[in-house]
């Protein structure tokens, strides 16, 4: 709606009016309130100030981009990971600088549109939205006929039970939310796997034990704990330790599915001299044979892309890379934790078994993780 007395005096300095003509015709746009000019439309100082604010946001975004590059090259993510406030410094600063830079561009564009781009009301003429009286009557008749045919008015029992069924249909959804709660995400269920001292490693499909002599340098096998792979008769045997003792009772089908997803491992042989000997896991390998969880610590993809020369293991999902010669440390990518390692031993015949569960919880991070 036009209010000619309030038109701004400012222009673009070239003799052109910067503000488009507002709507004038009461009949064309009935009921439209009088146009209110923004401070930046009527005050050249406010306009300049807004322009500088937008430019400052874009400059801030450039600074963030430069800081991103600085952070990329400054923080160590190799053998020694730099930390800041307990977080991986590289991931933290890369995320912050990239996020703030993007945010500044977004806010700058919004401010530009709000304060400086042209500000006019536009009326678009449309035909009336309401249906004709005749159409409404026809629709109403069709609805009434449908209700009569369904008999819903004559059958209160069906009507009431249908309403009840619809009301109860939402209950399973609400109950299923419980699975997201702390009870089912308890740390103890995620911290422990099926592995325990004395449990043999078997090949994941065949279920046969792995002998140290079976592996050449550079070989990589997928393994599982004995007791999770059905025998040739289709039964799950109870796992037996090196001294013939039964380690755990055989599992039922549901337990099997739960344990299987957590316990998968990869077994790799490298030259013993290539292994970085960390004091707390001095003898965790058997002749250069090491064992790690197969579940990526980023978001849990199974990992198996091995680079023989470097002993790096690559996750195909988002390219997190772990150094298997150095305690499974993250050397690249978004994973926030080393790959959990298992202490290995071999019995008198050379078959490999675990000396205990993994050194830390398997899989991605979660709130309660230490
Ligand atoms: S799940 Fe492995 S890098 Fe994302």
UniProtKB/TrEMBL annotation:
Region (Disordered) residue spans: 1-40
User: Keyword Nucleus: yes or no?
Assistant: no
Q: How does it sit in the membrane?
A: Multi-pass membrane protein
User: Among its keywords, does the record have Secreted?
Assistant: no
Q: Which PROSITE patterns match?
A: RIESKE
One GO cellular component term of this record is: plasma membrane
| Domain named Rieske: residues | 284-353
GO molecular-function terms, A-Z: 2 iron, 2 sulfur cluster binding; metal ion binding; monooxygenase activity; oxidoreductase activity, acting on paired donors, with incorporation or reduction of molecular oxygen
Question: What is the first-listed, main subcellular location in coarse terms?
Answer: membrane
The residues that cross the membrane are 54-75, 87-110, 157-177
Listed cofactors = [2Fe-2S] cluster
Which Pfam families is this protein grouped with? QcrA_N (PF19297), Rieske (PF00355)
Xref: Gene3D superfamilies: Rieske [2Fe-2S] iron-sulphur domain
Q: Which UniProt keywords apply?
A: 2Fe-2S, Cell membrane, Disulfide bond, Electron transport, Iron, Iron-sulfur, Membrane, Metal-binding, Oxidoreductase, Respiratory chain, Transmembrane, Transmembrane helix, Transport
**Where is this protein localized, as stated in its record?**
Cell membrane
Q: Report the function annotation for this chain.
A: Iron-sulfur subunit of the cytochrome bc1 complex, an essential component of the respiratory electron transport chain required for ATP synthesis. The bc1 complex catalyzes the oxidation of menaquinol and the reduction of cytochrome c in the respiratory chain. The bc1 complex operates through a Q-cycle mechanism that couples electron transfer to generation of the proton gradient that drives ATP synthesis.
Family classification: Belongs to the Rieske iron-sulfur protein family.
Q: What is the name of this protein?
A: Cytochrome bc1 complex Rieske iron-sulfur subunit
User: Which species?
Assistant: Nocardioides zeae
Lineage at the top is: Bacteria, Bacillati, Actinomycetota, Actinomycetes, Propionibacteriales
């Amino acid at each position: 709606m036009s209010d000619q007395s309030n038109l701004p005096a400012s222009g673009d300095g070239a003799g052109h009016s910067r503000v488009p003509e507002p709507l004038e015709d009461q009949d064309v746009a009935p009921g439209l309130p009088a146009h209110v000019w923004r401070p930046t439309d009527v005050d050249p100082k406010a306009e300049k100030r807004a322009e500088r604010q937008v430019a400052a946001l874009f400059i801030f975004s450039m600074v963030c981009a430069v800081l991103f590059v600085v952070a990329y090259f400054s923080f160590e993510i190799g053998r020694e990971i730099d930390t800041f406030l307990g977080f991986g410094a590289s991931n933290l600063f890369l995320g912050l600088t990239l996020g703030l830079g993007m945010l500044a561009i977004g806010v700058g564009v919004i401010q530009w549109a709000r304060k400086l781009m042209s500000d006019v009301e536009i009326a678009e003429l449309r035909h009336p939205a309401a249906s004709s009286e005749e159409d409404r009557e026809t629709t109403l008749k069709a609805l009434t006929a449908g209700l009569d045919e369904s008999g819903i008015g004559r059958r209160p029992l069906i009507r009431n039970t249908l309403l009840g069924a619809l009301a109860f249909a939402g209950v399973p959804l609400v109950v299923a939310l419980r699975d997201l709660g702390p009870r089912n995400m308890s740390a103890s269920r995620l911290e422990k796997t099926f592995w325990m001292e004395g449990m043999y490693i078997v090949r994941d499909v065949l279920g046969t034990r792995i002998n140290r002599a079976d592996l050449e340098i550079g070989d990589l096998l997928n393994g599982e704990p004995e007791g999770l792979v059905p025998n040739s008769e289709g039964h799950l045997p109870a796992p037996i330790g090196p001294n013939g003792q039964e380690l755990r009772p055989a599992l039922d089908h549901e337990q099997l599915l739960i344990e299987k997803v957590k316990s998968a491992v990869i077994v790799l042989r490298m030259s013993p001299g290539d292994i970085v000997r960390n004091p707390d896991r001095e003898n965790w390998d058997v002749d250069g044979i090491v064992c790690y969880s197969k579940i990526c610590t980023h978001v849990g993809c199974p990992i198996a892309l091995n680079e023989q020369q470097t002993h790096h293991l690559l996750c195909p999902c988002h390219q997190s890379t772990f150094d298997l010669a150095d305690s499974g440390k993250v050397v690249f990518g978004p994973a926030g934790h080393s790959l959990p390692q298992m202490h290995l031993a071999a019995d008198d015949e050379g078959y490999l078994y675990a000396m205990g569960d993994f050194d830390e919880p398997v899989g991605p991070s979660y709130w309660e993780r230490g």
